[in-house]
Amino acid sequence: MSKKEKNPRLGKVGGQAVLEGVMMRSGDNIALAVRRDDGKIATKKSTFTSVRKKHKALNIPILRGVVNFVEMMRLSYSTLSDSAKLLGLDELDEETKFDRWVKRKFGDKVMNVIMVIATVLGVALAIGLFTVLPMLITSWIKGLVGGDETKWGYNFLFSLISGVIRIAIFILYMVLVSLMKDIRRTFEYHGAEHKSIACYESGMELTPENAKKCTRFHPRCGTSFIFVILILSILIFSLVPWTTNTFTDKLVMMLLRLALLPVVTGIGYEFLMLAGRHPNKCTLALSAPGLLMQRITTKEPDLDQLAVAIKSLKLAMPDEFPDEPEGDADEEPDETEETENAEETENTEDAAKTEDGENETV
Question: What are 26-37's pLDDT values in tens digits?
Answer without folding.
Answer: 988 999 999 998
